[in-house]
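Design review, sub-item: ligand-bound model
Attendees: FS, YL, KQ
YL presented the inputs for the adenosine-5'-diphosphate complex:
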Amino acid sequence: MPVLLPYPFAGPFDYAAPPSLGLVPGDLVLVPLNRRQEVGVVWDAPSGPAVADSKLKPVSARVEAPAMPAPLRRLVDWIARYTLSPPGQVLAMALRVNALVPPPMILGWRAVSEAGGVRLTPESKSVRLTPESKSVRLTPESKSVRLTPESKSVRLTPESKSVRLTPQRQRVLAILGDKIIPGADLARQADVGASVIRGMADAGLIAAAPVPSVPPFGRPDPAFRAPVFSPAQAAVAGHLRGLVSARSFAVTLLDGVTGSGKTEVYLEAVAACLEAGRQALVLLPEIALSAQFLARFGRRFGVAPALWHSDLGSRTRRATWRAVAEGAAQVVVGARSALFLPFPDLGLVIVDEEHETAFKQEDGVVYHARDMAVVRARFSTAPAILVSATPSLETLANVEAGRYAHLRLLSRHGGASMPAIAAIDMRDAPPPRGKFLSPVLVEAVRARFARGEQAMLFLNRRGYAPLTLCRACGHRLACPNCTAWLVEHRARRELSCHHCGHTAPSPTMCPVCAAEGTMAPIGPGVERITEEAAELFPEARRLVMASDTMPGPHAAAEAARAIEAREVDLLIGTQIVAKGWHFPHLTLVGVVDADLGLAGGDLRAAERTVQLLHQVAGRAGRAEAPGEVKLQTFSPEHPVMQALISGDLAAFYAEEKAARRPGHWPPYGRLAALIVSAEQADAADRCARALGLNAPAAPGVEVLGPTPAPLAVLRGRHRRRLLLKTRRDIAVQPILQAWLATVSVPRGVRVDVDVDPVSFL
Ligand code: ADP
Ligand code: ZN
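KQ shared the predicted structure:
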């Protein structure tokens, strides 16, 4: 019986199956391997010529865990073949949970059903307190006693009348229901502070209790708060509902301007999926986005969905994995790894912001989660919905070829207008020497502040300055491990390499010419823009959002709350602010360096710049107040700037397609990259040259390279790249396999395969 183990072996191993275990494909089993016991999965395909059972080691035991569903096993095999990865390495992504160890016991809160002798329901407006009630925090002045965390502590006397349940407390009780939920989760789901929970415990409204090994995942209620759709939205929502009810595989692009209600509408597909009793998966490119999404999901369905990403605590991870496997978690929102969850009955897959390159996993098994989500949907016989305001050319090509359906929402919801986008020509209106904000942009920001509105400055670059050089000798500070400049992070008083993570203290003296005080920052990062903004707008309340200053969804959620509550005037951020946020009072977006993304010059530089800047622009003017966007650029005539200013993305897409089609560049052809790396440059060169000499030759097949990679040295390894380009109707995998077989890769040299590369570094 074939058993696949979560290690990079070529395929499953054969074990003898004791009939008493009654094993079937998908079962999790313990098997002996090199004198250890390993967890594996009973696989389907025979692993080569049958070996007599008597010669095989037997399976040791069955693991008490739900079996891996067939669609997930098919996905593992499919990804392994497509990416040329060992299937066990793909399996490892689906088995990262140690299903053998039961989660440890922890404490959570449960609602006290009869506080003060009164039956508590979420609808209760007040609670009568009895002499037995514990000490309660309250304002002595209040007539009817109102509980708030700010109130002073007063000991309740038997004469005290009643305690009102604040909306926050009602929310907590509504979420608790008859469940037991850990404090942090409860606070997050109810969107209240820890002090509210503490206050309720003090008041005897809730009590501590051990959390059951699998926390019950709330049942989302499809009818909890259904929106009233515009006719256009209703048509799209109805179509999506139909796809879910059809229970068949189909891919649909849901395309519409930011703020048109795409999210609202695809949640309708989730509702249909819930009504059908099936599970739904929503993939987001950035887990920082999940907080706003969770809150929104809660408003629509009454409970939070299960959340899945790589930073989950091990206990939550195990519990969530089990809940998904047992069907208790009906909706999962997650990062790309959520694709590998063992849904027994997946009825819908949604990929939000489908154009995002964050869906491409670059380490280990190199795969594109958007494309694999479509494959997952196919094996589950379920619809996939790809959502974007600026779809990828790949997806648009699939629409043109008739493979994907196309649904559109053409206008913003509720009459909100699209922001007016204009360029600031930096040659005509340059900033003062050593500064980065044009006087035109500064004036526009001031005007917004004068009207009590919010503004945002966007620069897709972390840190203070991307380059530090010595004014005396011209020496530039580079990473010792990579072909990259060190980026100054002034707040942390250090330089860091954004490729390998190397850090060094900021030097006061040039390491080459030993001159003192000559090291100068060149160019801006968000920290430097923040400094400039502090000088220009000292009275403005500023908030910086960058992935390094804002780790995790909670910090991002808190920032979003502060912005929505107008506790912030000026938001300064990197690409983390670009995506999906809804800030109703933000009416001006200033893009500090609109040309930045065009510099790299790879295949998708223009496409990505349009997508990113369009997304950033979409943050402006989402409510009644019309928004405006200013692009600081040195080339306002560039097609990318023109597309953004005119709002005519269709023309841009047409031009971009026309540029790629003749040369068979994706999406009109296929690419696969080979990255050869070694600690010794000549070892990398020799292997890369050998691959170059054996390059496949056939009509419609072309090999570019080998060439030193743009990141010629990364983490101390020398890197060479080869690029295989084929016509779209030619599969790259067999060609790659045959090609790789012609070269024996020496020890210390690695050849990484990247099918459908997104990064060309
Ligand atoms: P998109 O995903 O296209 O950017 P959203 O779904 O986020 O658009 O909608 C933008 C805003 O408009 C959100 O605050 C959303 O709640 C609101 N909205 C959209 N459609 C409706 C509707 N039919 N009823 C009420 N609010 C809506
Ligand atoms: Zn480095």
